[in-house]
Each structure stands twice: as structure tokens, then as C-alpha cells.
Fold this sequence. Notes:
Chain A has 104 residues and is an alpha+beta fold.
Amino acid sequence: MTEQTFLVLTALAEEPLHGYAIVQAVEALSEGRTRLRVGTLYGVLDRLVADGFAERDREEVHQGRLRRYYRLTDAGVRALQAEVVRLSANVAAAAFVLKARGAL
Amino acid sequence: MRSNLENRYRRLLRVLPRWYRDEREEEMVGLFLADRTDDLDLEHGRPGWGETGATLALAVRTRLAASAAPDRAVVLGDVVRLVAMVGLLVQLSYAFRWFGQALTSTAVESPGAPAVPVAVNLVLVGGPLAMFTGHRTLAKVLAVLTALYGVVVVPLTDGPVAFLGLLWQVPMWATAAALLVGFHRDAPAPAGRPWLWACVPAAVVAADFGALTSSSAVVVFLSATAGELVPLVVIAAGAVRLVRGGSVAWTFALAVWSVLLLPVELWYLTLYLSYPSGTALTVFLAVRTAVLVVVAAALVVAGLRGLRRPPLPVTP
């Protein structure tokens, strides 16, 4: 799972979001390191929908512009859980090694 | 009323296929303009390079789709990916032959293949093997190096061999381009094992059959034909496809390769037409070129007919 996909899944885990809100949430979650381009965002969303990890929620019109919301599916929650477990194991292993060196 | 900036974004979105725009255009335009509210920007602003690049990448992924797209987009994507994989096999075959010639110093600058340095042959062999063993990024890097060699180095060669060298590069460029755009992030990894097995016949096709005989006439004949068994293999594969049927993507991929081999084929035919004593060879090359053209045309017709039927799944 790429970092972009991970961040989008995390953003959607809290509540259904529209595209602009996802971009903002990803930027906030990554502390400004990841700024999704529109083409990139829709590439990620297309893959998540195709894999069954996300689905369309509802549509709204805001200031004359269409906003389409996306939500996480149960499969998406499980995929995010699995990734969190994997990353946590990596972090724990790295922390153990650094502690042994006295660097943490 | 739409601002100039919105119109520019909508023009940019035309790189996306119509089915995708119908679904996403309004949503994407809203997102593009969400942060750009300044009147001056709306009047004179333009899409940034980053947004343009990301949209172009999305266009490649949707036009050459791997899944979750209309059948035609998936078939087109499969065709490009198969063109790349077949091209890597063709490249491997030529590289084996040129490699052998470079090592044994038997490379002839006419009428056989143009001399290619050993280091370049290593790259030519490495690219296909990297792809067939699942190292997609490495394969793309080596494909770019291969293409750069053809663009930068080959034109510097003196004499008529330079033109022949460039013609040999056309299939390499097509392979590199197909590899880069076809195997995008959403494209599935190709099944490596069948392609690795295909390396065996590719090596056989590359063999220097002229070494098996001492007859100079036969050696000359083979130097112009056996070294280019690839067109015969493509013709045979195309004929089998026409008789037995199969996936539309394979049919179009073989048609593309029939066309890609034509420039070199025509160059040799033109060359031998100027040799009054080479009648048999000229006839052979003329027939082979004609058959290649006929097979290419028949494959295109068969492919277009096949598009009207539901496509068969393809795993390159």
C-alpha cells in the first residue's frame, strides 16, 4: 500500500469526505508532507473503489459545484487495520534496535 | 459564467477519455478551483505543471486501463502491454544475435545487422529479463537507456549503416514507449514464467545458422534472412491467431508488430533489388514482406471484428 493510499484510507476512516476535504485531510495528516494533486487523488480513489475499499456516499452541490462524497467500506477498514498492524510492527522493530544502540 | 481559468482546466481534462469525463469532470473542476478564488487568477491563471502532469498520468491510466473501465479501454491497455512484452522478446532475440556477433567479431555492417557494442547488448538483454522476472522499474530504466542509445548514439554513425541502425531502433522505441505507458501503476504484473520460457525460442531464432555451412551463397542468404527469423515468427503467430482465433488484444498486438517490422524489411528488400545476382533472395524477401503486410491487414480486420464481441480476459 502506497503512502498516498494509506493517508486517503485514514482520512476516510473518520467520516465520508468529498474530494477537496480528502486533499485537506491528507495534507493535515501528513503534516504538510503530502499534497495530493487532483489527478493523483482520483487515481487513488479509482483504485480504492475498484478494490472494494471505498464507495460513493452521496452528492451535494456547494456554491454551484458538484461535491461527491466517498466512504470507507468494511473491506477498506480491514485493509487499513492490516496496514496499521504491519507499520506498527516495523516501528516497534526499529524502536527496539535504536533503543539497543541508545539512540532512542 | 465560466472564468478563463475554468475553461483552461476543462480543456486540460480533454486528455481524459470521454467516459471518464462524463463521470468526473464537474467534480474535478470543482476541486481544481477550490483554492483559486482570486479574480486576477481566475482571469489570467493557468493549470500548474504538477496538476497537468498528474492529469496526464491519470489519462494514461484511464485510456490504457487495466480494469474498472469500458471494455475498449481495457482492450487498448492490454494491446499496449502485449506490444511491450512481445517487443521485449523481439529485442532479446536481436540482442542475443548481436551479442554473439560482438563477442566473436563477426558483426557485418551490411547486409547483416548493424554492429552494436557489447555494453549496449547487455542492456538490451537485461531489460527483457528484468521485466520477465518482475522487476518492472528496472526494466523501464533499461528500456529508456535502450531508446536513448537509439536517439543519441546511432545517428552519429557514418554512412548508410546509420540509417539502417535507426530503422532497427524503431521497434526498440515502440517497445520502450509501450512499456512506459502500458505498465502504469494500475497495470497488473505480467505472468513471468511463460515469458521466461519464451526466451528459449527467442534465443533459437537468434542463432547464427550461417555457421552451420561452408557454402558462401548459403551464408549470404542466411545472413540476410536467418538473422531476421523474427518476421517469420510474427507471420506464423499471426497466421495461427487468424486460424484459431483468440483474444482481441493478442490479435492487435501481433498486427502492431507486423507493422513495426516493416521498415527494416523494406530496407533489405530495397537493398537486394539493386543486386542483379540476388534474384532468389530478392524474391524471398519480397514474398516475406508481402505476407507480413497481408497478415497485418488480416489481423487488423479480425481485431476490429473481435471488438464487436465481448473481449476475452488477457494476462500479458
